[in-house]
Amino acid sequence: MTISEIQSTYPNAVWFDSAHTGTESGSFSQPYNTFTEAHTNVSDGGVIAVKSGTHSDSLLNINKNITVVGTGHDAIISKTPTTFQTWNPSSGITFKDLAIVETGSFSFSFRLQAGDIVFENCKFSNTDSAMHGFIGGYNNGTANLTCNKCIFDLKTTNDTTYPDQGSVLYT
């Protein structure tokens, strides 16, 4: 989505930009510079808007029903093996119009535990050939995953211990 589309569709969005310095209020001109701050200050059912750029930040223990929307594939969430380790949304979370880049090995980009998780128009890519998948889970019967119009740009692996690592979904 463009900035103007986000602002008109989600006028109360809390903005996030890890490169921002200065006063933080969650507005477009004064975004929070950590995802944790944005998550703390968004209401259940609310929206976190991610500005363009590469953001290496933790999305740990997301426990609200929220939408995380980016300004397209130029809004990049870059993670190392511990960035998006787990969340427990009460009813669901949607990621829209983001690029998600896995920079480490032996990890999941997202680990699902409960709730409905939706990825819409997201691009997943990895920079390490020994990754163990983008999406994994401990489904206790309450987690549902939907991917709509997503792109998976995966490297192959040379790791014979886990020969199925190159698959789109690994659980």
Could you outline the blueprint of secondary structure elements for this entry?
Layout lengths: L2 H7 L4 E3 L18 H7 L5 E4 L2 E3 L10 E5 L4 E5 L12 E5 L2 E4 L7 E3 L2 E6 L2 E4 L8 E3 L5 E6 L2 E3 L18
Parallel strand pairs: 1-2, 2-4, 3-5, 4-6, 5-7, 6-9, 7-10, 8-11, 9-12, 10-13
Q: If you had to describe this structure to a student in words, what would you say it looks like?
A:
The longest helix is centred in the first third of the chain and has 7 residues, at 3-9. This protein has helices spanning 3-9, 35-41, and strands spanning 14-16, 47-50, 53-55, 66-70, 75-79, 92-96, 99-102, 110-112, 115-120, 123-126, 135-137, 143-148, 151-153. It is 8% helix and 32% strand. α2 links the parallel β1 and β2 (47-50).
How many strands? 13
Number of helices, where a helix is a run of at least 4 consecutive DSSP H or I residues: 2
List the helices and strands in order. Answer: HEHEEEEEEEEEEEE
Helix content: under 10%
Describe the strand arrangement of the main beta sheet, using strand numbers. Answer: 1-2-4-6-9-12
Termini Cα gap: 30 Å
Q: What is the mean predicted local confidence, pLDDT?
A: 77
Tell me the β content: 25-35%
Task: Quickly give the structural class.
Answer: mainly beta
Q: How would the global form be characterised? A: globular
Uncertain parts: 162-171
Give a brief outline of the structure.
This protein has 171 residues and is mainly β.
